[in-house]
Amino acid sequence: MSTSCDFERDLADAAGILAGARYAIALTGAGLSVESGIPSFRGPDGLWTRYGQPSNLSYRVFSRDPQAWWELRLRDESTPGNPTYDLKDAVDRATPNPGHTAMAELEKLVILRTVITQNVDGLHTRAGSDSVLEIHGNRNYLRCVGCGYRRPRDGYLITDLPPLCSQCGGVIKLDTVMFGEPIPRATLDACIEEVQKCDAMLLVGTSGAVNPAAQFPLMARERGAQIIEVNPEGTQLTAAAHVVLTGAAGEILPAIVLATRGRVAGSD
Ligand code: APR
After folding, report:
1. Active-site residue numbers?
2. What is the pTM of this model?
3. How far is C-alpha 136 from the geometric centre of its chain's CA atoms?
């Protein structure tokens, strides 16, 4: 049972790591957006806990019959009682919470160089973070399977199913990466480059259940990077963390900003 002075010590340790880092990055997951009203996937009230996790064959099912996939998708988006509807409804209503804002602040302080997020809600960017790698895509975008061309979904009139790319005629899907779908190569390469550059990694709100993202903290630690975890619960990554701050992102991240800003200011 950690006490408040344990927490203060751990917070000071985390601030020291981040303020002293040459190149700190972050890896975030669904837990960061829980305080924005978006359910996580594997927690007690998680989407997969409630509805079951989609099959790893999801992408193959899409590829075999994209028209049928789109017909079902559009129906699910407008019919309550399924994970697609619940997630879309929550993300449509969501706004950045103090956790997102704190991470944008850490970028402005040149403490955080890049955020790798597994979230598809676009809230890091809305909170003001500029350097964001969306390893699982962004649900506000569409992407061509053929040429990779991405376009905003807003304003794109879906008339034919499946929608076809105006650039190459390929099939258009949601930008969100499906189970069984390869991560777009350019995005994955960019993430790996950041992981290889970092000497500190801030893990926020991820269970560490899904690869390749879950490998990033392990890869970084192997290279000597310091790992900090922010989560109310223990995870598959907790053992790899040098500092564990137990609690909600929306409370802990602003405290990290205050503790780190003091050190950065002190270094003038
Ligand atoms: N602050 C910080 N962490 C939180 C909070 C909070 N307020 N609330 C919950 N958490 C933690 C949970 O304890 C859990 O460890 O967030 C984590 C959420 O884990 P998951 O639901 O597994 O989400 P994530 O790790 O992002 O899942 C990875 O799985 O299904 C795929 O594409 C999906 O990107 C997702 C990926």
Report:
1. 136
2. 0.97
3. 7
**Residues 6-49: tens digit of each pLDDT:** 999 999 999 999 999 999 999 999 999 999 999 999 988 999 99
Domain carrying residue 113: 4-38+95-137+183-267
Tell me the pLDDT tens digit for each residue of 203-237. 999 999 999 999 999 999 999 999 999 999 999 99
Is residue 30 lining ligand 1, measured as CB closer than 6 Å? Answer: yes
Interatomic CA distance for residues 117 and 132, integer angstroms = 7
Ligand 1 atom with the shortest distance to the CA of 47: 21
Band (268; pLDDT cuts 50, 70, 90): very low
CA–CA separation, 151 and 266 (whole Å): 44
The tally of domains found in the chain comes to 1
Contacts 24+ apart (CB under 8 A), 264-268: 264/19, 264/109, 264/111, 267/19
How far is the centre of ligand 1, averaged over its atoms, from the C-alpha of 78 (Å)? 25
- Residue 93 corresponds to which amino acid? R
Write the pLDDT tens digit of every residue in 74-117: 999 999 999 999 999 999 999 999 999 999 999 999 999 999 99
Map residue 27 onto helix, strand or coil: strand
Is there an atom of ligand 1 within 6 Å of 130 CB? no
Residue 54 domain-assigned (yes or no)? no
- Tell me whether residue 9 is in a domain: yes
Question: Does some domain include residue 90?
Answer: no
Distance between Cα 95 and ligand 1 center (Å): 17
Which tokens in the block code for residue 251?
A: 């409370």
Query: Pocket of ligand 1, candidates 28, 32, 42, 203: which has the most ligand atoms within 8 Å of its Cβ, to mutate?
Result: 42
In a domain, 252, yes or no: yes
CATH code of the domain covering residue 254:
3.40.50.1220
**How much distance in Å is there from the Cα of 40 to the middle of ligand 1?**
5
Point out the ligand 1 atom lying closest to the alpha carbon of residue 29: 26
CA of 203 to the centre of ligand 1 (A): 11
Ligand 1 atom nearest the C-alpha of 46 is: 21
